[in-house]
């Protein structure tokens, strides 16, 4: 088996269809079928069962796909190490970044970094903090930037923090807030708990939730249209937003905040371009 076989197995597994897999790999269906038969003969096991038009992987096939995924990651890791080895100011950095940070912070950060180090390239994957963390655990990224603290045993540090606030197109009436329409932003459970704890400290009635959204930018636009108030992080707010804002504080006066975390491995930090990037991220947030 070689890396081409790893890709073939993973593509067939994902599509469960030889025709679609062949199209994705820019080859023919007979060529894929022939290669699978060769692998089955070489390993002396059946990998795939054809049932009408559907494909089912045998337990042996499932195990080989898992091996192919693992080897693909290892091969990519070695490629990165070889490419970045002894390169002080050029190479590839793989980032996994929380969606909101990627939307509101990352573009300006990378733009300035790119001006300083124009030969360093990036691959960026975004998503929920949990999925970004999974990329790190699977060795699919060099660095992760998450919007919640993860149980990470390697290197991690807080790079920034933002405040939670009530936003509304209309004047914020704190006394009667429970009766006002609220736009609820679905987010990770840690943040939801922080907001709900604040609410329970200040009100005995539940919020009047009239809408639920799963994107911060959608939530902001709904508020701008006067459809209700929302409780969100100020990471997405700008001075040009003509919205009323009220920063959340607990009863003891402490602001309700959220931290953004930078995660990486000690081994990865030995790569010069990773050192440059991490140093710049620190500078960017603390200048």
From TrEMBL:
Instruction: Identify the keywords attached in UniProt to this record, alphabetized.
Output: DNA-binding, Transcription, Transcription regulation
Looking at the record, the residues that make up the HTH lysR-type domain are 1-58
Domain of life from the UniProt record = Bacteria
User: By what name is this protein known?
Assistant: Putative HTH-type transcriptional regulator YraN
Q: Which family does it belong to?
A: Belongs to the LysR transcriptional regulatory family.
Xref: SUPFAM superfamilies? Periplasmic binding protein-like II, Winged helix' DNA-binding domain
Query: Which PANTHER family does its entry note?
Result: HTH LYSR-TYPE DOMAIN-CONTAINING PROTEIN, HTH-TYPE TRANSCRIPTIONAL REGULATOR
What does the record give under GO molecular function? DNA-binding transcription factor activity; transcription cis-regulatory region binding
Transcription regulation is among the record's keywords:
yes
Lineage from the top down?
Bacteria, Bacillati, Bacillota, Bacilli, Bacillales
């Amino acid at each position: 088996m070689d890396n081409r076989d790893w890709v073939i197995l993973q593509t067939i597994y994902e599509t469960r269809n030889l025709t679609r897999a062949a199209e994705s790999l820019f080859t023919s269906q007979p060529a894929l079928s022939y290669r699978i038969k060769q692998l089955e003969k070489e390993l002396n096991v059946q990998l795939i069962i054809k049932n009408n038009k559907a494909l089912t992987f045998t337990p042996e096939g499932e195990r080989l796909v898992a091996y192919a995924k693992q080897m693909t990651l290892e091969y990519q890791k070695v490629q990165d190490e070889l490419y970045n080895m002894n390169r002080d100011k050029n190479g590839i950095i793989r980032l996994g970044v929380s969606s909101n940070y990627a939307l509101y912070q990352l573009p300006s950060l990378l733009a300035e970094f790119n001006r300083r180090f124009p030969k360093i390239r990036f691959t960026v994957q975004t998503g929920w903090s949990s999925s970004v963390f999974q990329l790190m655990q699977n060795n699919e990224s060099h660095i992760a930037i998450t919007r919640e603290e993860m149980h990470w045993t390697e290197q991690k540090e807080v790079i920034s923090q933002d405040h939670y606030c009530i936003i509304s197109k209309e004047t914020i009436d704190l006394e009667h807030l429970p009766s006002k329409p609220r736009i609820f932003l679905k987010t990770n459970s840690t943040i939801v708990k922080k907001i709900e704890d604040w609410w329970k400290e200040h009100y005995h009635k539940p919020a009047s939730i009239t809408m639920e959204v799963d994107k911060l930018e959608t939530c902001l636009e709904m508020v701008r249209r006067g459809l209700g108030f929302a409780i969100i992080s100020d990471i997405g707010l700008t001075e040009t937003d003509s919205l009323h804002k009220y920063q959340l504080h607990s009863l003891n006066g402490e602001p309700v905040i959220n931290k953004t975390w930078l995660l990486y491995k000690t081994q990865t930090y030995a790569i010069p371009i990773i050192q440059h990037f991490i140093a710049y991220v620190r500078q960017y947030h603390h200048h």
